[in-house]
Amino acid sequence: MKQKRIMTIQDLSCFGKCSLTVAHPIMSAMGLEVCPIPTAVLSTHTGGFTGWTFRDLAADLPAIAAHWKSQGLTFDGAVTGYLGSGEMIGMVSDYFRLFPGMVKVVDPVFADNGKLYAGFDEAYAAGMTRLCAQADVIVPNLTEAAYMLGEPYVASGYDEAYIHGVLRRLAALGCGTAVVTGVTYDPAQQGAVAYDAATGEFFQYFRENIDASFHGTGDVFTSALAGAVVLGRSLPDALRIAVDYTVDCIRATMPDRAEHWYGVKFETCLPGLIRSLEA
Ligand code: PXL
């Protein structure tokens, strides 16, 4: 069978296990051919370190696309994450136009826990909302969803009707499928809920809620979800694969949680991810 090929456009944080340093190995393990496009090189991610370096690679993005086009390269999918500047959002939109036919997965990556990430503002959030409108699948957390919809962030105490409403309003922005992560109806459980706008169906998958927070788990989730979707797995299957893998990674990191706060031990859980594709 022809191998599926996916491009992934996000930053390369040299230390910290997020964005490209998780997306590339996870999707390679799933059997995809992964073509990384670094939007910026940072010494560490920005969530908990201070004084990181930031080399903006925006100027390279159009040149990489032009070269790939000149070589006749084609892609089955694209997954985007942290981009680093508003200028880059327009460049990613150009990739979507230049390489038609890709399954486009956009994780907006600009906020969490009710707050914008360091270096992002409302204009970036608005630009990312426009990029999400062009995607087939978007993967915001509830903070990003609130910014994108111009609604207050609701941290807890919501019900299924609220989440389904958020998903419908997200899909109305223009994407085909909206997935929200970090949903807890019952404090003992956490999971993801998806809405397929074409069929009007909702899907959800929950696991035990682990009382800990690690950086990069959103990127782990989106990488596994995008890999599964581009491999042709159904939306409920992709949710199961991505939630189970993310929970496995968190569980594997718990014994070292104080020292390993910056990211999860996704590497040791790759064999389980590969096995979960066989189910
Ligand atoms: O995990 C999201 C992410 C990706 N890349 C960089 C980040 C963050 C979140 O803070 O700082 C550089």
Structural summary, described in words:
With 279 residues, the chain is an alpha/beta fold. The chain has one domain: Ribokinase (UDP-N-acetylmuramoyl-L-alanine:D-glutamate ligase), CATH 3.40.1190.20. Helices cover 38% and strands 23% of the residues. It is built from 9 helices and 11 strands. It has a 9-stranded mixed beta sheet, sandwiched between helices. Strand 4, helix 3 and strand 5 form a beta-alpha-beta unit. Helix 7 packs antiparallel against helix 8 and helix 8 runs antiparallel to helix 9. The chain is globular and about 50 Å long. The model has no long low-confidence stretch (mean pLDDT 97). 3-hydroxy-5-(hydroxymethyl)-2-methylisonicotinaldehyde binds next to strand 1 and helix 7.
Q: Give the CATH architecture.
A: 3-Layer(aba) Sandwich
CATH topology name = UDP-N-acetylmuramoyl-L-alanine:D-glutamate ligase
Structural class estimated from helices and strands:
alpha/beta
Count of helical stretches = 9
Radius of gyration: 17 Å
- Unreliable stretches (pLDDT < 50, length at least 5) are none
Overall mean pLDDT score?
97
What is the CATH domain class?
Alpha Beta
Q: Total number of β-strand segments?
A: 11
In percent terms, what proportion of residues is strand?
A: 15-25%
> What string, H for helix and E for strand, traces the elements in order?
EHEEHEHEEEHEHHEEEHHH
| CATH level-four homologous superfamily name | Ribokinase
Strand order of the largest sheet: 3-2-1-4-5-8-9-10-11
* Helix percent band: 25-40%
- Morphology call: globular
Describe the main β-sheet briefly. Answer: 9 strands, mixed
Number of domains: 1
Distance between the termini: 19 Å
Enumerate the distinct ligands: 3-hydroxy-5-(hydroxymethyl)-2-methylisonicotinaldehyde
